Amino acid sequence: MLQIEHLSFDVRDDGRQAEILSDISFNVADGEMLVITGPNGGGKSTLAKLLMGINEATSGRIILNGEDITDLSINERAQAGIGFAFQQPPRFKGMTVRRLLNLAAGRTLSESECCGFLSSVGLCAQEYIDREADATLSGGEMKRIEIATVLAKQHTLCIFDEPEAGIDLWSFSMLIKKFEQIHKEKKESLILISHQERIIRMADRIMVISDGKIDRIGPAEEILPTLLDTSSQEACCYGQQKGGDYCEA
Ligand SMILES: Nc1ncnc2c1ncn2[C@@H]1O[C@H](COP(=O)(O)OP(=O)(O)OP(=O)(O)O)[C@@H](O)[C@H]1O
């Protein structure tokens, strides 16, 4: 289980202290899928980076399976069982996709294992396995390769930041199936940061982050209608911000 207790994150901006996240507390149970959504700039990616250890919390505690991991490095958190796929994945000049998958898995994968992970994100393995994971790959290709690297290892908790971003509809459907499979197996907890209704609908619970705070959190059947309610001014503004996804529902 992941327990987040009173997490806050401040930055210094133009010599002034700015609060990006304020007093965030929630849990993610074993095997649970929590989807985090909310308006642009609300603080979702910042929270993900705090969980992964990329940003250091100003205050609060992060506890994974009873162990306080607040002060652990990125590597130590990865060893503790956290996997993370960035909103905008980094490129690795000089490193092939195969090597990246092996590094992510922590062992040498067989050809068929590599192919399986690439296929599960809709990539034709033979075309990509020996390519460099560098700037010659499109944004959507790199995004899918990064998701494949997270899938290459069993984690306690996987965090995916906007996995839908830049991914074509066909690959997106495959990705949804993969998330559904992981969720069904209940071996890993999942935190998905998303604006996509199809992903939000898969959640056990939904958390809405807005203006650096938890606006609401609860079972999907309770929170989803509040997002889809076109009579709600807030939901409507949010839908317009995101291209009308919710308002058109
Ligand atoms: N290091 C930083 N210095 C200054 N401002 C920051 C820093 N990190 C994040 N912010 C600000 O904090 C806010 C939250 O950013 P964040 O990327 O977490 O939002 P988000 O909810 O993931 O947004 P989106 O839906 O657009 O991806 C934004 O206004 C961003 O500009």
Automatic annotation (TrEMBL):
SMART domains: AAA. GO terms for molecular function: ATP binding. Keywords: ATP-binding, Nucleotide-binding. Residues 2-236 form the ABC transporter domain. InterPro entries: AAA+_ATPase, ABC_transporter-like_ATP-bd, ABC_transporter-like_CS, Molybdenum_import_ModC, P-loop_NTPase. It comes from the Bacteria. This is ATP-binding cassette domain-containing protein. It comes from Coprococcus intestinihominis.
